[in-house]
Amino acid sequence: MKNKTILIFDDDVNILEVCSIILTYAGYEVASSETSHDIIEKVSSIKPDIILMDNWIPNIGGIEATKLLKQHAEYKNIPVIYISANNDIHLLMEKAGADAYLAKPFDIVDLENTVERVLAESASKFDTEGKA
């Protein structure tokens, strides 16, 4: 079974680097991008199992990028974890149509647990829908 692939969108190079190190060490394949305006092209070439999306990312922003993904027939079922330091992150997550959120600053355990939980929920949802 292939390792799960995570695509991280964040304009903060330090966050990309730290998350990449943590998630690679946890056994994931990790790709990252500092911009989200070309989300469909990036997802098409990387084929991630899950996406971490920052709210404040240049050009179109996390909400619009997530909406573009969720409106795309082929990629709408890829789970998105919305990440932000905003106090109202749960509202931003809902507005974007993301599947979960992770408030910044987060620790290693929160990051790993949230990714594992969302991947498990996505797999079980896919299994249920696939058998229907």
Features:
five-stranded parallel β-sheet, 132 residues, 18% strand, Rossmann fold, 5 helices, 5 strands, alpha/beta
The H-level CATH homologous superfamily, spelled out, is Response regulator
Shape: globular
Stretches with pLDDT under 50, minimum 5 residues: none
Fraction of residues in H or I helices: 40-55%
Strands of the biggest beta sheet: in what spatial order? 2-1-3-4-5
Task: Give helix and strand order, one letter per element, not per position.
Answer: EHEHEHEHEH
Structural class: alpha/beta
What average pLDDT do the residues reach? Answer: 93
Kindly estimate the percentage of residues that lie in beta strands according to DSSP: 15-25%
- How many domains is the backbone divided into? 1
Rg from alpha-carbon coordinates: 14 Å
CATH class: Alpha Beta
CATH architecture: 3-Layer(aba) Sandwich
Give the total of beta strands: 5
The number of helical segments is 5
Major pleated sheet: 5 strands, parallel
